[in-house]
């Protein structure tokens, strides 16, 4: 039997919902809710203004979010890395750096309803190899990264503006079916983005990089390398501890009764020989402590104070005038002409090159800079032949000083190959370069002293299995003839090790000249 429902007919009649009849789509509901104009006939009423405003807000937020999600990202290189930068809605803001598959780190860089996501996609092999092959590019890497980040964020800002406007406008047009309403939604989305950017700029915190939060496998990073603030703090403690050890060991050394017989006279000239600092800031604390404890008259640096010789490294040299003694310096193969020019303008610093000689604290010193600058891979290194030629020219300058009546007491060259060519022209020649301490009297009587690394190989030495030791020497010269009488070798523990050792060496007196043979007054048969 078929049953029919009998009821009223006409416009007010209601039809029972059929189980097979689809419901009204959400878009139609929103459009009906937000459609302006006169109230429809019947019991349905126009939506409340607050409801319309809430609906418009929902359209703007959802549309802007969809726009950012779909097209609001920028792929940009940052140094040797390829990255993707994206803006994401967030309640707290900040920056998230994703390093797949290791995890992520978060920075409280700003407070805004937007978070900056940076995905490290890969390390570009070509750009990475270029850095390895040309270490001089590291000097400009910081500027390059800063420029890359600026270009990336600028591009991201423009793309995000287009994304939020397009997303909100498209969704507004789909919901309202009216261009004016759609354009209003796009304008509101752009205003919201501008307000968020203003909030981020006002709350920008550059120090947030010192306190990152790690996720994933990177959670072990603080325990392995320490956060930036603890590294700075602990390194400062380390270098001050080394300076304190130098002081204590020196006092103990002076007090013990088991020293060699040599006791330096208070008027003895004292020269501190350092070399191959390689940008290690701890070296300045150690040198300053030794100058005070040993009452140093002059410091001689046989080169490689820098790593890449770039202008960006020059600020590292600003500690030299405050070391407490005149500073004599020759260029090493890691020191550029830019480094040399910067040092030559400093007060109380004497730069020696091309055999130039100066008298400092009563000691006549001459030296030549290294002819090669090895960080510059555009020039083919000439090796030991170039070093020996520099030594030959230095020896010629030393002979010229002798003929002029101003003989040189100490010659300085960075490379031992150059220093060896001065044999017979000067009593003492100093060198570095090989990061090993050596001492020998050469064939024609010149003593060659090679110093180890006063910077413990520099900060690059942390890559070594065992830290390289910090080495420097105190030379005692007779004030009358400026000849070497004795020297102390100071050896400190490398990066992270607080040990100190001082050993004294006394120059053996030359053997007495053989007596002339006795002559007989009687005639020979």
From TrEMBL:
The Calcineurin-like phosphoesterase domain extends over 269-436
Q: Transmembrane residues, as ranges? A: 53-72, 156-176, 183-204
Give the top-rank taxon of the lineage listed in the UniProt record for this protein.
Answer: Bacteria
Q: Where is the composition biased (Pro residues)?
A: 508-517
What species is given as this protein's source?
Streptomyces zhihengii
Q: Pfam families from the entry?
A: Metallophos
Taxon lineage: Bacteria, Bacillati, Actinomycetota, Actinomycetes, Kitasatosporales
Keyword terms: Hydrolase, Membrane, Metal-binding, Transmembrane, Transmembrane helix
Region annotation (Disordered) maps to 1-25, 503-525
DNA damage among keywords: no
Q: This chain belongs to which protein, by name? A: Metallophosphoesterase
């Amino acid at each position: 039997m078929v049953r029919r429902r009998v009821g009223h007919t006409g416009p007010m009649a209601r039809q029972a919902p059929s189980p097979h009849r689809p419901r009204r789509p959400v878009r139609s509901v929103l459009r009906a809710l937000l459609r302006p104009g006169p109230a429809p006939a019947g019991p349905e009423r126009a939506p409340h203004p607050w409801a319309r405003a809430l609906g418009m807000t929902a359209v703007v937020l959802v549309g802007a979010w969809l726009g950012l999600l779909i097209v609001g990202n920028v792929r940009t290189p940052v140094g040797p890395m390829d990255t993707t930068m994206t803006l994401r809605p967030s309640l707290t803001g900040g920056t998230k750096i994703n390093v797949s598959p290791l995890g992520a780190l978060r920075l409280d860089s700003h407070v805004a309803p937007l978070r900056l996501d940076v995905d490290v996609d890969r390390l570009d092999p070509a750009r990475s190899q270029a850095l390895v092959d040309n270490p001089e590019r590291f000097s400009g890497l910081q500027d390059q990264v800063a420029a890359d980040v600026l270009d990336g964020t600028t591009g991201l800002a423009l793309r995000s503006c287009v994304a939020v406007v397009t997303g909100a406008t498209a969704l507004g047009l789909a919901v309202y079916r009216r261009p004016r309403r759609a354009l209003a939604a796009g304008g509101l989305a752009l205003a919201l983005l501008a307000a968020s950017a203003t909030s981020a700029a006002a709350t920008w915190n550059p120090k947030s990089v010192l306190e990152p939060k790690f996720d994933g496998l990177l959670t072990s990073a603080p325990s392995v390398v320490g956060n930036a603030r603890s590294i700075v703090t602990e390194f400062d403690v380390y270098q001050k501890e080394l300076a304190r050890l130098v002081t204590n060991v020196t006092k103990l050394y002076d007090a013990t009764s088991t020293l060699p017989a040599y006791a330096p006279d208070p008027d003895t000239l004292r020269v501190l020989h350092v070399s191959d600092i390689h940008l290690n800031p701890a070296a300045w604390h150690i040198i300053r402590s030794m100058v005070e404890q040993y009452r140093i008259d002059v410091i001689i640096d046989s080169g490689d104070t820098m790593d890449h010789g770039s202008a960006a490294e020059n600020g590292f040299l600003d500690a030299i005038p405050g070391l407490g003694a005149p500073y004599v310096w020759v260029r090493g193969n890691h020191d550029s002409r830019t480094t040399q020019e910067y040092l030559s303008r400093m007060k109380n610093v004497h730069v020696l090159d091309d055999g130039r000689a100066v008298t400092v604290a009563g000691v006549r010193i001459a030296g030549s800079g290294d002819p090669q600058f090895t960080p510059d891979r555009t020039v083919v290194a000439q090796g030991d032949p170039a070093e020996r030629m520099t030594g030959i020219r230095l020896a010629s300058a030393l002979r010229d000083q002798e003929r002029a009546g101003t003989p040189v007491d100490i010659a300085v060259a960075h490379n031992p190959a150059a220093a060896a060519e001065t044999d017979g022209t000067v009593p003492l020649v100093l060198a570095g370069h090989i990061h090993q301490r050596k001492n020998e009297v050469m064939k024609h009587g010149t003593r060659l002293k090679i110093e180890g690394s006063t910077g413990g190989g520099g900060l690059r030495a942390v890559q070594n299995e065992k830290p390289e030791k910090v080495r420097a020497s105190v030379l005692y010269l007779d004030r009358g003839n400026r000849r070497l009488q004795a020297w102390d070798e100071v050896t400190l523990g490398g990066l992270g090790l607080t040990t100190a050792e001082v050993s004294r060496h006394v120059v053996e007196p030359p053997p007495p000249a053989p007596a002339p043979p006795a002559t007989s007054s009687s005639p020979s048969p």
